[in-house]
Design a protein that fits this description.
Strand content: 15-25%
Distance between the termini: 29 Å
Oligomer: single chain
CATH architecture of the largest domain: Alpha-Beta Complex
Order of helices and strands: EEHEHEHEEHEEHEEEHHEHHH
Shape: globular
Number of helices: 10
Number of strands: 12
CATH superfamily of the largest domain: Spore Coat Polysaccharide Biosynthesis Protein SpsA, Chain A
Structural class: alpha/beta
CATH class of the largest domain: Alpha Beta
CATH topology of the largest domain: Spore Coat Polysaccharide Biosynthesis Protein SpsA, Chain A
Radius of gyration: 20 Å
Number of domains: 2
């Protein structure tokens, strides 16, 4: 994870000037009033971006939609490959620097013209008919702030997509109960259209109301990678809004498409732990943080280094950061997708 604070280099309200914003791929007229804006965030995604674009074209065949691909300064030819296969009403915003997943997604949310916005990883393929179900929930229930599909791996098995509770003491107690009962039903839901309320939706594929996301400030730029979805769900809950999943709506998450881009082992775990620690410091009291870190230090774990990590945090994890709970609103841009002049 980048050691510097992203907020020092990124204006969360006004955004970043793109390196270049590409025109729509086929030279066709864009949808004048899209119902849905889709924001895939890419980084060195050349191996699979063409497949993602094809999947999005199929998934939005019956929806007035636009696709705003935000590229986080890829060093490969992601932008060139994406531009070569863009459909009508698709565009690419190529950033000068890698600002992280959440701030990168914010660049797409700022540009979104649809009533609803879907934020997704660059290796997610929503299945046809699923996005309509997510839209239906947001249209029919104003108490829902964020909705996501059931995530699957390419072999059809359930992918990690939700948590019962947000990180905190309640989540830790729930994990203990699950271990005692030898169950893990985080992703086990009835296969129907009924929304299931969850504590956390992982941001690999989530949909919200565009204006609401802009007013909230999108993803908190305090999180470079990992943790941005936890913080967003917490801010929605603070406003009395629910986070739900629709089991009959599905998306395939092919996390093995570019293994060289994805950290593994200790580095991977440390990034997640650091992001979670930042969430704790923003949202939880010092006594609650101490209790969680002590439990995680002495509790069961197959990664011995976690003892030293959590014990150190239990002794002192740094100052509380409540001032970072509310990022400034995102300022929408008037430039439509496909405007080659940028902002």
């Amino acid at each position: 994870m980048r050691s510097s604070n992203p907020t020092r280099q990124y204006d969360p309200g006004g955004g970043l000037a793109p390196r270049r914003q590409y025109e729509t791929g086929r030279g066709l007229e864009p949808v004048e009033h899209p119902k849905l804006s889709i924001v895939p965030v890419t980084f060195n995604s050349a191996e699979h971006i063409e497949g993602t674009i094809e999947a999005l074209a199929a998934a939005t065949a019956d929806i007035p939609a636009e696709v705003v691909i935000v590229d986080n300064a890829s060093s490969d030819d992601t932008v060139q490959r994406a531009t070569a296969v863009l459909r009508d009403n698709m565009g690419v915003v190529a950033l000068e620097e890698n600002v992280g997943f959440g701030p990168g997604a914010n660049e797409g949310i700022r540009r979104a013209r649809g009533t609803y916005t879907l934020i997704m990883n660059d290796d997610v393929h929503p299945t046809p008919g699923s996005l309509e179900k997510l839209i239906d929930v947001l249209e029919s229930d104003q108490t829902v702030g964020l909705v996501g599909p059931r995530m699957l791996y390419p072999d059809g098995t359930a992918a990690d997509a939700t948590r019962k509770f947000l990180p905190g003491l309640r989540d830790e107690l729930g994990r203990v109960a699950d271990r005692l009962n030898r169950r893990d039903d985080r992703n086990s839901y009835p296969d129907d259209d009924q929304p299931v309320e969850v504590g956390l939706l992982i941001a690999a594929c989530v949909m919200g109301r565009t204006k609401q996301l802009q007013k909230l400030g999108g993803f908190n730029p305090e999180f470079f990678f990992y943790g941005e979805d936890i913080d967003l769900c917490r801010r929605l809950h603070e406003r009395g809004l629910k986070t739900v999943t629709i089991p009959s709506a599905t998306a395939v998450h092919d996390q093995n498409v570019a293994p060289d881009r994805r950290p593994r082992g200790r580095d991977f775990s440390t990034r997640i732990l650091d992001a979670r620690d930042r969430f704790y410091r923003i949202w939880l009291s010092r006594p609650e943080r101490m209790a969680i870190n002590l439990w995680r230090a002495i509790g069961p774990s197959d990664q011995p280094f976690r003892f030293s990590y959590h014990m150190r945090k239990a002794l002192y994890d740094g100052p509380s950061l409540p001032s970072f709970r509310e990022p400034p609103p995102l300022i929408p841009t008037s430039s439509p997708v496909g405007n080659p002049s940028g902002d």
